[in-house]
Amino acid sequence: MAKRGASLEFAVLGLLHDAPMHGYELRKHVNLLLGWTRLLSYGTLYPCLKALGKAGFIETVTPDEPLIRGKRPRIVYKLTAEGKDHFAALLEEAGPAAWDDENFNIRLAFFASTDSPTRVRILEGRRSRLEERLDGVRTSTQRGRARADKYTLELQRHGLESVEREVTWLTELIEQERSAGKGEDVPSSITEAK
Amino acid sequence: MAKRGASLEFAVLGLLHDAPMHGYELRKHVNLLLGWTRLLSYGTLYPCLKALGKAGFIETVTPDEPLIRGKRPRIVYKLTAEGKDHFAALLEEAGPAAWDDENFNIRLAFFASTDSPTRVRILEGRRSRLEERLDGVRTSTQRGRARADKYTLELQRHGLESVEREVTWLTELIEQERSAGKGEDVPSSITEAK
DNA sequence: GTTAGCATGTAAGGAGTTACATGATTTT
DNA sequence: AAAATCATGTAACTCCTTACATGCTAAC
After folding, report:
1. Contact at 8 Å (CB) between A35 and A57?
2. Which of A11, A143, A179, B134 has the most CB atoms around its CB within 10 Å?
3. Cβ contacts (< 8 Å) between B111 and chain A: which residues?
4. A152 and A90 in one domain?
């Protein structure tokens, strides 16, 4: 639904697919998964949880242990049946949105729930995306009159190298996928509906 | 002034310090400098230009060549005296803000306008920041009950490696700075006001 | 001639951060 | 006892993106 906040929504759904959790726990998991740059803040997470609840994808778990352990109970969330369907549907979307900067990492984190052809498709899409970027920068650098002091050059070299490394990494993952492709490990709990 | 949009403001000021330019050109330069992820959009740039103009840091250049070469003239901007002062002041700020994710790269791009001690200070600050991050993730991974499937692990490994590489790079730059530190190349046009 | 790139803007809307508000529990 | 961490939320604000609106110029 939400085009842009798709990444967080996907992460929450995916993590709750593993196991029920409360907000604080979710935040830590998301930060471990993709918190290399910005850390997920409560101001983002809790409203997202509310929205997902209103959409019917998650619900609060009525606690078995008595929740009177203080005034503020921990609110544990779990996926509803609709939430599971929705997550399965998201997993099937293997188009450009799956390999943009915003979404690729979180997609990769839940690759175990997808089938091998989808994995390859997304990995290749991501790689193409990065290669286009590389081409663009290389072209601009050549013809454009760019700044060329030592530090600017270092910055550009390091940036270029990072992207090149990611391409190499993706290539390795793709090759692993292809060679393991025959003795296929069946996706865990997501059934092939389509 | 602006805490968060500081990065773009700094870039614009720095580029106009090199030479007067119009918006379209600025965008290309900024994108070459730090456009590895998101590309700077006009919706961000032009309002920023207006704000900088209103703040008195930049002004439009009355063109020497007759600007009647179509209805839409190119609006060339240059730094005012206040703009130069402001940029010089920004260059002297070598605190935490200079080495966060948002600002470090653009600071590095204009390192040639700073003196060597400031460069080392910022490089070391950035390195510490990344090392803290590394520690945090390593600690969380060990004690926390994290997901541990193949793809999550790959994602984490690659993320960790990227940050480690950046630390190595920074260390190299610091060493270069120290060894070249004695036969100092004087900062170009920024005078040491303080 | 038509595509691609040059060139400048605005309006609406989305996503996320910071700071605030509140309080319990565990560790040092 | 203090500090850290657990735990949930809200409101204001900022920045940015997308899509729209307009028109020229060079290359193929």
Report:
1. no
2. A11
3. 149-151
4. no
- Whether B105 sits inside 8 A of A38 (CB atoms) is no
E-assigned strand segments in A12-128: 21-22, 58-60, 76-79
Asked if A151 is an interface residue toward chain B (Cβ–Cβ < 8 A), one would say yes
Residues A144 and A75 in one domain: no
Boundaries of domain holding A7? 3-109
> Domain ends where: A109, A132, A151?
A109
Does one domain contain both B71 and B165? no
Give the nearest partner residue to A150 out of B112, B141, B156, using CB atoms.
B112
Segment B27-76, tens digit of pLDDT? 999 998 887 888 899 999 999 999 999 999 999 987 655 444 445 578 99
Place of tokens 């773009």: B8
> SS3 for B62?
coil
The sign of the dihedral angle between the CA atoms of A106, A109, A115, A117 is positive
> How many CB atoms lie under 10 A from the CB of residue B33?
23
Q: Select from A105, A102, A131, A107 the least CA-distant residue to A119.
A: A107
Instruction: Return all residues near A31 (Cβ < 8 A) that are at least 6 apart.
Output: A39, A40, B140
* Facing A152 at nearest CB: one of B109, B133, B140: B109
> What CATH number is attached to the domain comprising A62?
1.10.10.10
Q: Which two tokens stand for residue B43?
A: 């919706």
pLDDT digits (tens, 9 = 90+) for B175-189: 999 998 665 555 555
Task: Examine the domain organization and report whether B73 and B122 are in the same domain.
Answer: no
- Tell me which amino acid residue B149 is: D
Q: Domain count of chain A?
A: 2
Please indicate, yes or no, whether residues A88 and A7 belong to a single structural domain of this protein.
yes
Task: Clarify whether residues B53 and B145 are in a common domain.
Answer: no
B152 vs A109: CA distance, rounded Å: 5
Task: Report if pTM > 0.85.
Answer: yes
**CA proximity to B13, closest of B56, B72, B66, B62:** B56
